[in-house]
Write a structure and sequence with these properties.
The structure is a single chain. This protein is mostly helical and 68 residues long. 71% of the residues lie in helices and 0% in strands. The protein has one domain: 434 Repressor (Amino-terminal Domain), CATH 1.10.260. Helix 2 crosses helix 3.
């Protein structure tokens, strides 16, 4: 995945799996639709900065770590 959104999705998925939570659990913590998590992780959705911040906060990591 060469796009920034593709890399973002990969980073979210890796982090989520590392801490051992499902897509549904992440969506619940971030207060966003579970379908959005699926699409973001697949690089098929371009989330807003606000959404990325919610996800990072729910994963307990810095926003920059997801974009790196």
């Amino acid at each position: 995945m060469g796009t920034i959104y593709g890399k973002l999705g990969v980073n979210i998925k890796k982090t989520r799996r590392k801490i051992g939570i499902s897509q549904e659990e992440l969506a619940e913590k971030a207060k966003i639709d579970p379908k959005s998590i699926v699409q973001i992780e697949a690089g098929k959705r371009n989330p807003t900065l606000k959404t990325i911040r919610k996800i990072a906060s729910s994963l307990k990591i810095k926003l920059g770590d997801l974009l790196d």
